[in-house]
Amino acid sequence: MQEYKLFINGEWVDSSTGETFDDINPATLEMIAKLQKASQDDVQRAVDSAHDAFEAWSTTPAPGRGKILFRAARILEERKEDLARLMTVEMGKILKETRGDVQEAIDMTYYAAGEGRRLLGETTTSELHDKFCMTVRRPVGVVGLITPWNFPLAIPAWKIMPALISGNTIVFKPASDTPLLSIELVKILAEVGLPEGVLNMVMGEGSTVGSAIVHNKGIRAISFTGSVETGKWILGEAGKDMRRVSLEMGGKNPIIVMDDADLDLAIDGVLWGAFGTTGQRCTAASRVIVNERILPEFQKRLIERTKKLRLGSGLDESTDVGPVINNSQLNKVAKYVSIGKEEGAKLVLGGRAVKPLPGYFFEPTIFSDVSPDMRIAQEEIFGPVLSLISAKDLDEAIDIANSVIYGLSSSIYTKDIKNAFRAIEKIEAGITYINAPTIGAEIHLPFGGVKATGNGTREAGTTAIEEFTEIKAVYFDYSGKLQKAQIDVEQEEE
Ligand code: UN1
User: Fold this and answer.
1) Cβ(151) to ligand 1 under 6 A?
2) Cβ atoms of 68 and 193 closer than 8 Å
3) What phi and psi values does residue 42 have, to the nearest 5 degrees?
4) 29, 121, 322, 400: which has the highest count of C-beta atoms within 10 A?
5) What residues contact 121, with CB distance under 8 A and at least 6 apart?
6) Pocket lining: 281 vs ligand 1, CB cutoff 6 Å
7) Which of 447, 453, 459 to mutate to test the pocket of ligand 1 (most atoms within 8 A of CB)?
């Protein structure tokens, strides 16, 4: 059994705890690797190494940093199929999706590499003569990156690549359920010449390793994707030392289906949005808000199509839905099914854990007659459970869409331009799709949400650089005399 160490200062080193944890294939329950658990001291070693590397890395011209990223992107491309297969074995989602996950990392790596020739600031005018004004971007310093298990390569790349191109050095903790893709990514970056100490990886539990990152004052900014509870806690803890935090947390993402929608298209979208990745996406569609006039027909056709989804090993190309990640997620999904029944929603499909293989499988599940205030319509389940909610018109559908604490992704199926623009204007979310499901964000657009989904920051897109840089305003006075802003300004003649 392969045992993996921590990556500190350019080397794979033993953790100081002597303890390990297991990496399990969620479809078969086979153990695939052992990972060393870091201690608080190990985190400190990683932070020290990132500090030592900062001066040289942050002063390397950004296009030079970009060259390293371009090389990494090419290797990711060459190894795409192997990485996708490894990801399916470790995380469970089907090959089509793990290939997409790797592709998302490739896209982000190229995009960030190209950003090395931009990192744009602004030049602007001055109120005074012979004075030049501009903004420049500076790296934040040592940053702490904490990533989830559902996108084992894409989300690490969303964070690592923009942080690197911006000149930061990194202490990175991947999710304990899926560290292997992060290990591969670290190996690739080392192979293409990332200097030692620039990227350090520590593994282990959130309560020890994550907490040590959050509390380490040497880390200037933290970027976290995960649960609302953990995100709130991080914001509070890091806030005590006024350190930057960017959070991307859950969703209870709605798809609104209007009575003028193309129903087949909407059903295709709902199936993909709700049951893709076994519902384990922040962006997964977990509520479908359907116009009451078409609800019976929609429900009938949706159930027929959902019944055809095949559960099984993600390595089998004919599988549609893989396992959930672990036993505690399986129990959580089962618990929400019980809650839904107790609340009086009607279980119209699925609802049970099943065993096509020894692992953690749960049937695609649909509840009808869900009222918007039920817990299954309010709380993030992060599994293959969909709630159907009836709405009499668009206004009511939007009110229902907005009635949750979250605001990440959203969607509307309609052929009416007015409905589409009303949804864009009124739905409280960071992302709105028209005639497409809630999942499938592209890396060159901002990703993130409103309300409890985050703290206002956005990842990816041009905002990726904002997340990892400080802006400095520069005033360059070449008049050779003291000029006072606001005071020495020429007044217009009355
Ligand atoms: C997530 O679930 O945390 O838009 C990220 C999507 C993917 C990213 C999901 N590109 O569904």
Assistant:
1) yes
2) yes
3) -65, -40
4) 322
5) 134, 135, 136, 137, 471
6) yes
7) 447
pTM value is: 0.97
For every residue of 272-329, DSSP letters joined together read HHHHGGGG-STT-EEEEEEETTTHHHHHHHHHHHHHTPPBS-TTSTT-SB---SSHHH
In contact, 102 and 83? CB cutoff 8 Å: yes
pLDDT digits (tens, 9 = 90+) for 400-447: 999 999 999 999 999 999 999 999 999 999 999 999 999 999 999 999
Q: Which strand ranges, in their side-by-side order, compose the sheet holding 365-368? A: 346-349, 365-368, 385-391, 285-291, 253-257, 411-413, 433-434
Give the chain's radius of gyration (CA, Å). Answer: 24
Centre of ligand 1 from the C-alpha of residue 260, in Å: 28
Token pair for residue 29?
């329950």
Q: Cβ(68)–Cβ(189) under 8 Å?
A: yes
**Atom 3, ligand 1: residue with shortest CA distance:** 282
Query: Of the listed 90, 115, 184, 282, which one is catalytic?
Result: 282
Place of tokens 């087949």: 264
- The predicted-structure confidence for 59-110, as pLDDT tens digits, reads as follows 999 999 999 999 999 999 999 999 999 999 999 999 999 999 999 999 999 9
Domain 3-249+454-473: which topology? Aldehyde Dehydrogenase; Chain A, domain 1 (3.40.605)
Query: Where along the chain do its domains lie?
Result: 3-249+454-473, 253-434
Tell me the residue ranges of DSSP E strands in 29-139: 31-36, 123-124, 131-139
* pLDDT score recorded for residue 445: 97
Token pair 């990556």 is found at 7
pLDDT exceeds 60 at position 494: no
Burial 119-137 (b: 16+ CB within 10 A, else e): beeeeeeeebeeeebeeeb
Strand partners, 476: 132
Alpha-carbon span 437 to 429, nearest angstrom: 14
- Where residue 223 falls (left for φ over 0; alpha for ψ -120 to 50; beta otherwise) is beta
Number of Cβ atoms within 10 Å of the Cβ of 433: 24
Report the alpha-carbon distance of residue 383 to residue 363 in Å, rounded: 10
Q: How far apart are CA 436 and CA 257, in angstroms?
A: 11
Q: Do domains 3-249+454-473 and 253-434 have the same CATH topology?
A: no
Q: Which two tokens stand for residue 230?
A: 């953990």
How does DSSP classify residue 373?
T
Find out if CATH 3.40.309.10 is the number for domain 253-434. yes
Burial (Cβ within 10 Å: 0-12, 13-18, ≥19) of residue 161? buried
